[in-house]
Amino acid sequence: MRTLANGTTEVGVGLISVGWMGQLHSRAYRNLAYAYPDLGVRPRLVHAADTSEDRRREAVDVLGYERASADYRAVLEDPEVDVVSICAPNFLHAEMGIAAAKAGKHFWIEKPVGRGETETAAVAEAADAAGVVTSIGFNYRHAPAVEHLRELIAAGTLGRITNVRGHMFADYSADPRGARSWRFVRELAGSGVLGDLMGHLVDLVHYTLGPVAEVSALTSTVYAERPELPMGTGTHFALIEGGQMEPVENEDYAGMLVRLSGDAVAADAVGTLEASRVAVGPRASYGIAVYGTNGSAIWDFEQLNFLRVSTPLGTEDPGYTTVMAHPGMGEFGRFQPGAGTSMGYDDLKVIEAKKFLSAVLGRSSDASNIHDALSAARVVSAAERSAAERSWERIPAEPGTTAALTAPQEA
């Protein structure tokens, strides 16, 4: 990093994997100057890595990186790279995260960080040992309506929280012709919808209500086989006619009963969490409903700019009011001038980039971090054990997270 003549801090950016998410990270860095001109940061897209020659060319010619390499280690060895975005498939996350930490590079990594609790813990250990700043791709927590929900819960507006109902229902694999990408192979992805979607939902619960302490789960695989998609081609949204059928090795659906920690803002609240990648109807219905003794509130990503909030207990005309995101709610004002003009998915990643670089510069600590990823991974791994053994599983508290707690978490 270096300070430019105008006082702006230039941060050298490296990218590992130039797929859809890598492109999104790159756009987020670029858009920081527009959404946060007062941040005083200028990301410089220095070095990208991808095994595909076409994607390397795209990184330079379209995204604006100064150079590109086939080996991700070249990015980590580049002295002009200060921070790295890791957007590769799941099975490479742990290896790359540990390597980034050992190279002394701060990193922003997509979830799941590892194929379960053990790999994620190894990345956390390496990051802590190296003293690097980390940020996780938990983008849904940045929606202004979610930030407002968190504030309502913390302020006691909904009363004592009694229960939560969360779901992440997607249809990207609802068609049986849906490609068998790496996401359906246990060696490459680890768990299925647990790691892919449930991890996001668990983070929403942790961020707004507090950590999950106990879980009982069940899972199912709706489609036992899918047509093969060669690695490095297409996406998991692809449909394949007449392809070679191969087995699906992880779950399409997961459901959990949960109890929150006694240290949570919503201490000892209970709830149900569900995730599916084969739901017919919902496109990306990722939602959370929180119920308290004085009211409730409901949010769904398909209407990310809205929060439904109930009237307080005892109101003469009970029901829900739809509150539209507006300036003053979360980071909304950085993107739109007034309610009714909506933010989008890409904007949530710009917020994530801002929080990451602010943390790198030591200006704030509100970015998600590797301990948030490990906390979510512990719940996902406990759910896998529970589903296999038909048992209740306890989850140990993870220090250093950004979970909603009643008091600072002990080290």
Secondary structure layout:
Layout (H helix, E strand, L loop, with lengths): L1 E2 L5 E8 L3 H16 L5 E9 L3 H11 L3 E3 L2 H6 L5 E4 L3 H13 L3 E4 L7 H14 L3 E3 L7 H12 L5 E10 L15 H4 L3 H16 L3 E9 L4 E3 L17 E3 L5 E8 L9 E7 L7 E9 L3 E5 L5 E5 L9 E5 L20 H16 L9 H20 L2 E3 L17
Helix pairs in contact: 1-9, 4-5, 5-10, 8-10
Description of the structure:
There is one protein chain. With 411 residues, the protein is of the alpha/beta class. It folds into 2 domains: 138 residues, NAD(P)-binding Rossmann-like Domain (Rossmann fold), CATH 3.40.50; 255 residues, Dihydrodipicolinate Reductase, domain 2 (2-Layer Sandwich), CATH 3.30.360. It has 10 helices and 18 strands. The strands form 3 sheets. It has a 9-stranded mixed sheet. Strands 1, 2, 3, 4, 5, 6 and 7 form a 7-stranded mixed sheet that branches. α1 packs across α9 and α4 runs parallel beside α5. The radius of gyration is 21 Å and the shape is globular. The mean pLDDT is 94.
Estimate what percentage of residues fall within beta strands. 15-25%
Give the helices and strands as they follow along the chain.
Answer: EEHEHEHEHEHEHEHHEEEEEEEEEHHE
Largest sheet: 9 strands, mixed
Average pLDDT score: 94
Strand order of the largest sheet: 17-16-15-14-8-13-12-9-18
Q: Which stretches are low in confidence, meaning pLDDT under 50 for 5 or more residues running? A: none
Q: Provide the CATH architecture of the largest domain.
A: 2-Layer Sandwich
